[in-house]
Amino acid sequence: MVPAQGPALLDFRHVSVMLGGKRVLDDITLAIGAGEHVAILGPNGSGKSTLIKTITRECYPLAEPQSSLTILGRDTWNVFELRPLLGIVSSELMRRSMREITGREMVLSGFFSSVGVQPYHEVTPAMTRKTNQVLELLEARHLVERDMTAISSGEAHRLLIGRALVHDPLALLLDEPSNSLDFRAALELRDILRKLAQAGTGILMVTHHLPDILPEIERVVLLREGRVFADGAKSKLLTTKRLTELFGLPVKLARRDGYYHLW
């Protein structure tokens, strides 16, 4: 499933993670190419959040002989070299961002891997130009002087994506992107992500909401009880039978305009 050219963006080999005495990820083997658009889908408790935290090094795998985890072919990175290559938009970052900083500062802070701009940060003209370009791309110029505490969840998501985009990363890693968003904000966010996917930014999305899975995403990984339950083409895996097995209850499935819906 990984393109032959170049190393995989992420390559998990027999990765297991323990939390609170429980094996939350269990022998995960998964490779994702740098240019792929992939959704990782699973119910609550399936290990999705732990998978994200393992990528971001908030959790560490068990040290087992057969286990390895590489990013772009390397198992050791200077974090300052890695951050520009993989843009992360997580629920944890969202919680940390709800403070009195402006939208412009939020996007600019991507250059410093901080939340907001500190007095000791040196903001260059090039950084300011790039920030303005990103705000324009995301149609967020109206948020430049607004505090993060005074905007909607949808607008905050847009700025966090902008923060991740200032380095033109190879891929965006999105954790439950539509959580806390109303219907309109979710639609607007999906439109933005589609624009980025079509422009060549890889999209790796972790979600339990089927409508989050963009038409551009062709590969789906199903996660259940800390294991890879299935991995393959969206058209083969997003079926009533598979999703009934995944979520453990009878479901109905519909497709419209390239999106899938479940009830």
What does this structure look like?
The chain has 263 residues and is of the alpha/beta class. The chain is 30% helix and 25% strand. The chain has nine helices and eleven strands. It has a six-stranded mixed β-sheet with strand order 5-6-7-3-8-9, with helices on both faces. Strands 2-1-4 form a three-stranded antiparallel β-sheet, covered by helices on one side. It has a two-stranded antiparallel ribbon with strand order 10-11. The longest helix is centred in the C-terminal third of the chain and has 16 residues, at 183-198. The two termini are 29 Å apart. The model has no long low-confidence stretch (mean pLDDT 92).
Counting H and I runs of at least 4 residues, what is the number of helices? Answer: 9
Distance between the termini: 29 Å
State the low-pLDDT regions, or none.
none
Q: Based on DSSP secondary structure assignment, what is the total number of beta strands? A: 11
Backbone structural class: alpha/beta
* Bulk shape: globular
Order of strands across the main sheet: 5-6-7-3-8-9
Summarize this structure as a short list of keywords or feature phrases.
2 domains, alpha/beta, about 260 residues, 3-stranded antiparallel β-sheet, 11 strands, Rossmann fold
Write a compact overview of the structure shown.
With 263 residues, the chain is α/β, with parallel strands linked by helices.
